[in-house]
Amino acid sequence: MPGCFWPGAGIGFPCRHSLSTMSRPRIRKSLRKKIAADAGYHCGYCLTPQSFTAMPMHVEHIIPLAAGGSSDEDNLWLACPLCNGHKGVQTHGSDPIADEWTPLFNPRKQKWQDHFRWSVSSIEIVGLTAIGRATVLALRLNHKHLVRARRRWSSAGWHPPVE
Ligand SMILES: [Zn+2]
68 alpha carbon to ligand 1 midpoint, in Å? Predict the structure, then answer.
């Protein structure tokens, strides 16, 4: 089964997005480079810098192709393998406070700081809004492997990332 590997955490896991890559429209290399630069070379969801992953991040479809999204620039952003793998074909998630279905965070159109903040320890991401809370859950932004890595980065003075 195709999968992703998160070298910093030493884990491999299946990711739903990689299962249908054969039918995906090709995204030009120049556009991939532009997306990465526009995203500041970090994941649009968990803010992990590309330089921490030891492998290229994914250019993800904000609205998945399976949900009718396009491969146009305005539907593309940078995501780490964990976030992209957990997102899969999801476009919405459940806000645990309001118990309502809500759209997931759109890193191209929305500001991270409007929907999330770092916990006091800076190890976990806290959702501030329904969109933020639903996205934290759906993309597992506080997955144990991310939390473990953030602890290590924090002890080295590399975390939280500075905008
Ligand atoms: Zn991420």
Answer: 23
